[in-house]
Amino acid sequence: MSSLKKLVIILVILVVAFPVGAFGYVYFKLNSMHDPNANSLLGETNFKAENGITNILLIGTDGRPGEKDSRSDAMMILTVDNKNKSLKLTSLARDSYVDIPGHGNQKLTHAYVYGQANLLIETIENNFALDIQNYAAVDFYSFMDIVDALGGVTVKVEQDEIHELNKFIPETYAWDENSNKGSIQYIKKSGTQTLNGYQALSYSRIRKNDSAFERDSRQRKVIQALIDGVKALPVTKYPKLVDTILPYVKTNMKPTEILGLGGTVLSLDDLSIKQEEFPIDDDIHSTGGIYGDAGWVLRFDPDTLDILHDFIFSNIRFKDNPLLKTNPTQNNLK
């Protein structure tokens, strides 16, 4: 089951899209998001880290009404890079084959089921040799509410996406608790158009007509559209948007940390976000398929962690990294 990478939207709105002046309104409300049970690992430096670079794990969970357990359907690392003056967003594939402490080798998405954010953080740090400084998590329903609070998102819908998109609309329409959602509306044509909350969620769930990687690409397009929408939002609309966002978010960050991070982001000048996805999707440095009892998983060459680190810490895009020219053998895959 798929949903949009909801958490990225939430955190980017809080630390990227709002001007510093808007934080005066939300300062005291931010404390309602604080999770006092945050993993102690976040205060330690056990893996690769550098001064001036903050890595925030963004978690979107796939819980629905009546479900007690939920998986981390969306996992991204938002890198606020004050050293290289850039913002970066790295998607971690939910089907990545990893060693979950105490549970053996499984899909990355299962870690959240077993131990919530604490175990997921530990799993990511152990398997990707990367230090995480902060995290934030949000549940399934926030996405539709945020899109509607912004008046929709503008994306380009391709002709071959319409059937699959409309297939999900009855379900997402039923989930949408917006009293002003009106009668159900399907997508009737291709091209650039504005989608409401349940339509945008349906668009973000498309998968079967191409691949999980293409789905992630669509999700990132919606994220960019949301960021653009927040940037264009009049200041008078901030209170409503903040009230929409805050009930859904939990984070280890205290209000002062969020404010400080927001100030750092705004000082970068260039707020465009460089995006990558790991494992690397090229059928050379990773391979997907049924593996043992784990089901369909994505195994990756551990040597490619250097490529991931080069992007996060040295601002080197995957396609520009000479290490990609090295073809691993199948035995190198995890």
From TrEMBL:
Residues 71-231 form the Cell envelope-related transcriptional attenuator domain. It comes from the Bacteria. Pfam families: LytR_cpsA_psr. Belongs to the LytR/CpsA/Psr (LCP) family. This is LytR family transcriptional regulator.
